[in-house]
Amino acid sequence: MITIDNLTKIVSTTLKMLHILNDNCDEINVKEVTLLNEDTLCCSFYPVSKNSNDIKLEIVTIMGFFNGFFRDTNYENVNLNYYAVRAYDINDNEILNALSTKSAAELIGKGNSIEWLKLTLFQENTEDYRLSQAKKIISEIENGLREIVKTKLRSKFGEEWWGIGLNNKLGADVKEMYSKQFDIDCTNGDILIAYTFTLQLKKIILTHFDLFKSYFQTQFETLMDNLNKLRREEAHNRTISDLDLKNLQDLHEKLLSKVLLDLPSFQSVFLTENWRIKIKKIFNERQYKSIHNEQEVNNESNLEKKLIKIKENLTSLISYLNDTLIKLRSVTAPIHKKDLHNELIFCYERQKELQESLFEQTLTLNNEKINCIVNEIRVHEIKMNEFSSKILLSET
Question: Rounded mean pLDDT of the chain?
Answer without folding.
Answer: 90
